[in-house]
Amino acid sequence: DADVEKQMLHLAISRLGEREKRIISLRYGLKDGREYTQKEVADMMGISQSYISRLEKRIICQLHADMEKMA
Fold this sequence. Notes:
mainly alpha
């Protein structure tokens, strides 16, 4: 069910560290509906776009693993 998956995703996101939550929230518009590019997020956080890319991949893998455990 889509609602259950959405709840599981929100729970998994809530378990992330503050930096990881901020990256995912900005990249996917979870706060204000605006989806920022990796470059925009990198500039906001004072780190490189390539590092944001690596972090984002790691965060998505972590979220996927957490959701698998909940299923």
